[in-house]
Design brief:
Layout: H1 11-36, H2 39-58, H3 60-69, H4 74-81, H5 85-98
Helix pairs in contact: 3-5, 4-5
Length: 99
């Protein structure tokens, strides 16, 4: 057989090879899932989410004031941003006090 001739395999050999690949893939997926479920991995994801929220939260008073200036009511703002009305009012008061 030359280097250019394809190897001939039986259907059974192909099935065994494919089955082995699938099992190896499944084991890899299980290992990745186990690692993703560790407390450390969850803490890392929580820390990242917290950092992202802090970045958003810094600009929140300006965003809320901009929405109010555009005619939005605090109740509407709270609903669309999934915040409490009291949070919206508090941030608007803080924004007004800084102006």
């Amino acid at each position: 057989m030359s280097a250019q001739e394809p190897a001939i395999v039986t259907a059974e050999e192909l099935a065994v090879a494919v089955t082995a690949l699938v099992r190896r893939y499944e084991r890899g997926q299980e290992q990745q899932q186990a690692l993703a479920d560790t407390a450390e991995a969850r803490m890392v994801r929580a820390a990242q989410a917290r950092k992202e929220w802090k970045a958003v939260e810094e600009g929140m008073p300006d965003l809320l004031a901009e929405a109010r200036a555009a005619g939005w009511q605090p109740k509407q703002i709270a609903k669309i941003l999934d915040l409490t009305e009291s949070y919206v009012y508090r941030k608007l008061r803080e924004h007004d006090a800084q102006q």
